[in-house]
Amino acid sequence: MPSARTDVLDISYQVAGLADAPPVLLVHGWPDAARGWREVAGRLNDAGWRTVTPDLRGFGDTRFRSPTTPRDGAGAALAQDALDLVDALGIGRFVVVGHDWGARVAYHLAALVPDRVPAIAALAVAYQPRAEFVMPDFAQARRFWYQWLMYLDAAADAIRRDPLGFARIQWDTWSPPGWFDDDEFQATARSFLNPDWVDVTLNNYRARFRKEEPGDPRYAEQRRVLAGTERLTVPTLMVQGGADSCDGPSLSEGLESCFTGGYRRVLLDGVGHFPHREDAGSVADLVDQHLRAHW
After folding, report:
1. Tens of pLDDT along 217-238?
2. 3-state secondary structure 55-102
């Protein structure tokens, strides 16, 4: 895979499709990898889109350039990484499709550079105005057990000892059984052997409610803009699995007032937390239709 050098990272990425086709940035989530987009990307390429699929910081072959850079896993940092990548590739306008962490990247880019992003699509994770994490109700808090676990130092040590075991639990429980096999998990899990995967993972979740968790000051301006953004002007498609047992479907309901450019929410029955893997055909068709309407 090629890589693009930024001030902070060497970002590993894949490009497919015609060079002059409209660019679509496909951003994976946690715990997943760029390979999760393979089928959707192929369908979008066939439909006339050029896809750019990076490894997030801490995943796959993407590497920090300096050992002293804070391993900040927050959405603001991930969004800036995405911007740095498209800038390095000479891409001006682009559309964004993101899953899980990648969904937050899509929302954040719509807030940070709406003039460059004519449309976004987000899978599994709902928009959070002002990029604010709020305490969920008890039913959702129970689904987020893995997040609270990471707040314990002893649990962090356990995850360092067995990162693949920790990731496997999420795959086993976030979607109805039978959506993947052992070979696919093992192929994806190689991305989690990145030396910074655990640190970026822990920072992403611990910083949500542990304010003492260190962040990288270079993203202060991005955080300021996101904290002041209540509504998005970019047309948004939200694809939610009706059987998602991580992010309950109710989290993405009733958000139309947050999207002045339009908000379409599609619920896929029987699909869990990984719609792009579990029902790639439906996701690709929905994304293609949405992007064509707004490109």
Report:
1. 999 999 999 999 999 999 999 9
2. CCCCCCCCEECCCCCCCCCCHHHHHHHHHHHHHHCCCCCCEEEEECHH
